[in-house]
Specification:
This protein has 84 residues and is mainly α. It has helices spanning 2-6, 27-35, 47-61, 65-75. The chain folds into two domains: 2-35, no CATH class; 47-76, no CATH class. Helices cover 48% and strands 0% of the residues.
């Protein structure tokens, strides 16, 4: 929200919703947020990004508790956005 405001976006804090997938949205929400080319944001993903994301996912969601704990402790000071 703050980053959007800093970038000149008009954001109503009470209008932010989170969905696990597009199937949870009703047709109007899907049209406005995802299908409307004037509102959606596309980001290019490179192979390097995909490999890094796969590695990070494995660390955070894998069974190696010590690797997860170590990652969180090393990166906690850099957290800007935390969605719990």
């Amino acid at each position: 929200v703050e980053l959007g405001k800093q970038n000149g976006k008009r954001i109503r804090e009470d209008s932010i919703q989170r969905f696990k997938g597009l199937g949870e949205m009703n047709a109007e929400e899907l049209r406005v947020t995802t299908m409307d080319v004037d509102h959606r944001v596309l980001g290019q993903v490179t192979l390097d990004d995909a490999a890094q994301a796969d590695n990070l996912f494995s660390v955070l969601m894998g069974e190696d508790v010590e690797a997860r704990r170590s990652f969180i402790q090393r990166n906690a000071k850099d957290v800007r956005f935390l969605d719990i």
